[in-house]
Amino acid sequence: MNKLFLPVSEPDIGKLEEELVTQAVRSGWVSSLGKFISEFETGFSSFCNANYSSAVSNGTTALHLALISRGIGPGDEVIIPSMTFVATASAVLHAGAIPVFADCVDDTGILDNLAVEKAISNKTKAIIAVHLYGHPSDMDQLMKLSEDNNLFLLEDAAEAHGALYKGRKVGSLGHMATFSFYGNKIMTTGEGGMVLSSSSDDDKRIRFLRDHAMDPNKRYWHSEVGYNYRMTNLQAALGVAQLQRFNEVNSKRKRVLQQYKQQGLEGLFGIKINPRSSWADPAPWLVSIVLPLELNSKERDIICTELFKKNIDTRPYFYPIHQMPPYNNYRCVNKDGKGQLINTISLSSRGFNLPSSPNLSNDDIVRVSDLLKKELERFFL
Ligand SMILES: *Cc1c(COP(=O)(O)O)cnc(C)c1O
To answer: What residues does each domain of the chain span?
Structure first.
């Protein structure tokens, strides 16, 4: 029985990654020129059924670029969930725009589209739909809202590589999409990101801005202030390998989730594992536990502390962004048009992630599940 520390997430990096990264190092093309960049971009476009992909330095710069490429800036409101990783919100502020926080749906945590509709004002320019913990947002309704109100709809798919919405791949469902390849994500390049778009004008603008806004027809001529948001060839080599191994690693992730579900946790005392909507085929990223409504962060934190004492790492759901100091002065809107993000606050206090690495053994999963059951029993028996 393995009693070693079980982290929440570990990357799955194999021989192919070693080979391609070595090839990139030996080629001398270690910065942002080199064959792996375009190979990764082309491969990622076809993986997502998107027209264009531009590789960038991380998922946060991807979000920032997507927003500014469409001219979103000072005075513009961008509707985002409060239930997400902080980068969704900080990217809006980096662009100089104003985040407006819409409530989420319980238990999946994705944007509540009714709240989004109520949050639209005459300053609204964009919506960022986050596919939270691998679960796609309800994109058809959001697309309709965007079209009716002339808004830019951006998918933040940092946590959802390969997820399906009504049978369609995320990354090609809005006007643009962004991904992250941070070490704990479904696919990794160490640090890295991608911006996907359907129009060649958008893609050109993104490439221009990520490369110091250098004139494509006149080297070292800069007609605007740009950014250095490029990905390196070394990272792209890792990405090409991860993309080739996607199915292999993804089935391991699915197996992990399946084996957790077989331990009789689902429905036990009303807890849920990776809750999902009927139309969603979520990406298996982190194994998520959502406690029933009568429990909150007090019980959740006791459970996590006890598991930690047994060498089992867990991660609480994201804190509501609208409660943190730099973000607590912006407008919040729930499905009744009021300012209390009831579902966000409740879900944030009831959710946590279990060890979810693709190479977790069945013994580890049984051990974690048995200990979790014991901890739950204290509150219910
Ligand atoms: C990880 C993440 C990001 C940011 O990606 P980085 O590559 O870490 O900058 C953005 N949005 C969400 C929802 C994320 O989970």
So the answer is: 15-244, 249-380
